[in-house]
Amino acid sequence: MSERFEAVLITRDEEKRQCVAIVELGEDDLMPGDVTVAVEATTVNYKDGLAITGKSPVVRRFPMIPGVDFAGTVIRSSHRDWREGDKVILNGWGVGEVHYGAYAGGARVSGDWLVPLPQGMTAREAMAIGTAGYTAMLCVMALERQGISPDRGAVVVTGAAGGVGSIAVSLLARLGYVVVASTGRTSEEAYLKDLGAHEIIPRDELSGPARPLGKERWAGGIDAVGSHTLANVLSMTCYGGAVAACGMAQGMDLPATVAPFILRGVSLIGVDSVMAPKSLRLEAWSRLAGELDRRKLAVLSSTIGFRDVIKAAEDIVAGRVRGRLVVEM
Ligand code: NDP
Fold first, then answer.
1. For atom 9 of ligand 1, which residue has the closest CA?
2. pLDDT at 1 over 90
3. Among the atoms of ligand 1, which is closest to the Cα of residue 181?
4. What is the domain partition of the chain in residue ranges?
5. Distance 251 CA to ligand 1 centre (A)
6. What's the first-to-final CA gap in the chain, in angstroms?
7. How many Å lie between the centroid of ligand 1 and the Cα of residue 199?
8. pTM for the structure as a whole
9. 130-270 maps to which CATH number?
10. pLDDT for residue 9
11. How far is the CA of 40 from the centre of ligand 1 (A)?
12. H/E stretch holding 322
């Protein structure tokens, strides 16, 4: 990490108008923390898109360096777990929201927030997975805890061509599930089939108002979309099934009835990656290292440069990004 480095900085004026610029900073400008990391790769998640465009109040302290996740090398540490040269990953914990985040040459954070980069995984691969992929794995783990094994029936993934969706499809297929992929981009059928989807359904089958109960179509679901889509997914879940909800690309609302819960014993499981305990993070990253097909990871990710982050933020919020974007520093 050089003494001076570039950073994306979000500021606000007196009228609360947001401004985003690339500025030059030094290590002394970083916020307090007991570990300093040279950021080697980061990524653009939907949440980063919301932060940079200001479409949702993700950033809660100004000025702010956005970017909710990174992979890099420890260059200074007074934390018991980390030493200079250690390869680490950070996801969430308010980084890029209330604590200076990933879009900078360096980051100073609490050592408690870091997990080790799994053996055999590069910083680039870790960020091709990123918070979206780590969340997809948390969703898979949540379904497994509810007993949704491949023999129980299909699993639907909504927002399938997005980041969480693409990794969820790949993981589920690798684990032997029959995957139904819901997408607004039916032109991505070949892409989703290559990741392992068995069936592609158009997004609009699920995006209108839901009936209390629909035809039973899947044993489980991973939903990155929320709103009517999640309500439809629940109403079409088989008796005793479960749905892991992690996103809100369609909306924060949930216009559903209790019918799937009280008449079919369906479970709705909330998944949060930001404050997830360390034990879950370690399990998720260890499983991602062992169970995610690296060829598929290469297919679903593309690389952009640091200066492309602001444009990529607009693209992801507009639904124009397929799979995952890696930012190489
Ligand atoms: P992406 O933008 O990569 O994926 C979202 C996908 O949702 C899009 O690609 C699109 O898929 C679909 N979509 C977009 N707009 C709509 C709409 N209006 N109606 C229906 N579907 C829509 O984002 P990420 O994968 O990074 O994140 C997905 C969601 O998960 C976000 O809401 C994000 O905030 C949330 N998230 C939550 C986390 C947590 O801890 N709970 C962690 C990470 C993400 P397609 O083109 O296939 O239809």
1. 162
2. no
3. 47
4. 4-117+296-328, 130-270
5. 10
6. 10
7. 19
8. 0.97
9. 3.40.50.720
10. 97
11. 25
12. none
> In which band, very low, low, confident or very high, does the pLDDT at 116 lie, cut at 50, 70 and 90?
very high
Radius of gyration of the chain, Cα coordinates, nearest whole angstrom: 20
Q: Is 92 in the pocket of ligand 1 (CB under 6 A)?
A: no
pLDDT at 297 over 80: yes
Q: Write the CA distances from 215 to 76, 146, 157, 218, 221, integer angstroms.
A: 57, 21, 17, 9, 15
Mutate to test the pocket of ligand 1, among 42, 47, 69 (most ligand atoms within 8 A of CB): 47
- Average pLDDT, rounded, for the chain: 97
> Which pair of tokens denotes residue 246?
């992690």
Residue pLDDT, tens place only, 157-208: 999 999 999 999 999 999 999 999 999 998 999 999 999 999 999 999 999 9
Question: Does residue 131 line the site of ligand 1, with CB under 6 A?
Answer: yes
Closest CA to 228 of 201, 202, 248: 248
Domain covering 4-117+296-328 in this structure, CATH number = 3.90.180.10
